[in-house]
Amino acid sequence: MVTLREVAERAGVSIKTVSRIVNGDPAVNAKTRIAVQHHLESLNYVPNHAARMMRGGSSSVFGFMTDAVATTPYSVDIVRGAQAALNEKNQTLLIANTDGDEKLEKEYWRMFRAHRVAGVIYASMFHRPHIVGQPDFKDPIVLANCFAALGDKPSLIPDDEGGGYAQAEYLLKLGHRRIGVLTLIPDIVATTLRGAGIRQAFRDAGLSFDESLEQRGMDGPVHFERMIAFDAAVKMLSAKDRPSAIICGNDQVALQVYSAAAHLDLHIPRDLSVIGFDDQKVISENLRPSLTTVALPYFEIGRQAVETMREAKQNDANWAPKILVPCPVVERESCCAIS
């Protein structure tokens, strides 16, 4: 491994000068900085973060532990958001994926301690309460896309209730009144929260929500769900008083509604408006017409988790806010106003 001494000898400056440049000291002469950086690059110098941590007692490395996010499409944006925030200060993310294995999780906590990470983001595949194991870890732990069941750690979660509200409000403003809902399974937090948001939007508009128009789009236990949205949508859309719009629990459900509408020779959005949730771009951008949906703010959750981790260092151990990150409507072509 190339050392600071080798770079200093090649550049004809002191080791102290090279160290100041590596550590971003702005007081170094610009001409000297450019010359030294050239030699740093040509020699492929890599900073020894471990040695720096031993000297300074601090770390530029943060941990990221997840049950499945790192291997789950779309929610990997939580990782991207965290990395983007850390890159701004030349900090690094050490990622560990547990796949729900408790023994593996304990090993990763040991690894984080060994690397002296400055804090850890724990991210879940879906919005749920979580109890972090006893990691004997003294630096800040922030939960992302899940929340502390014991209320003992800061957390960032999508505003699912606000997202459900946004879905209903969007359609109500277009003049829709008879609106169907195809939900996710009832055992997850998001289903309850989004349903509450939908009902609140109706109340705020001075309207009553027809409970008979809410059906499951998915069925089964968590992690073993099966899609039933096509049959539910066909039944709903075959009725004489069929809805003019359908709110979908996610974009996969919306895809099934598109298929049901085609099966019944209904045109989207002329005969039926459809709004999804998640903004899974492989679905939402490629459907024809493209799908209006509500985005899960994974990137922003990851970015804000880093900022929250930094704030946690300035607060006491009892500082444990639950931060709601807004879920915005992404408007495309699948909804239109009632004529």
Task: Summarize the entry for a quick read.
By secondary structure, this protein is of the alpha/beta class.
Keywords:
Rossmann fold; elongated; 434 Repressor (Amino-terminal Domain); 339 residues; alpha/beta
CATH architecture tag of the largest domain: 3-Layer(aba) Sandwich
Distance between the termini: 71 Å
**According to CATH, what is the topology of the largest domain?**
Rossmann fold
Category from helices, strands and their pairing: alpha/beta
Task: Name the shape in a single word.
Answer: elongated
If strands are numbered along the chain, what order do they take across the biggest sheet?
2-1-3-5-7-15
In DSSP terms (H or I, runs of 4 or more residues), the helix count works out at: 12
Rg over C-alpha atoms, rounded to the nearest angstrom: 25 Å
What's the number of domains? Answer: 3
Strand percent estimate: 15-25%
Percentage of helical residues? 25-40%
Summarize the structure in words.
There is one protein chain. The protein is α/β, with parallel strands linked by helices. The chain has 3 domains: 4-47, lambda repressor-like DNA-binding domains (434 Repressor (Amino-terminal Domain), Orthogonal Bundle), CATH 1.10.260; 59-159 and 298-325, Rossmann fold (3-Layer(aba) Sandwich), CATH 3.40.50; 160-296, Response regulator (Rossmann fold), CATH 3.40.50. It has 12 helices and 16 strands. It has helices spanning 4-11, 15-22, 30-42, 49-56, 77-87, 102-114, 160-173, 189-204, 229-238, 251-263, 281-284, 298-314, and strands spanning 61-66, 92-97, 120-123, 129-130, 141-144, 147-148, 155-158, 179-183, 214-216, 218-219, 226-227, 245-248, 273-278, 292-295, 322-325, 329-330. The strands form 4 sheets. It has a 6-stranded parallel β-sheet with strand order 2-1-3-5-7-15, with helices on both faces. Helix 10 (251-263) links the parallel strand 12 (245-248) and strand 13 (273-278). Helix 1 crosses helix 2.
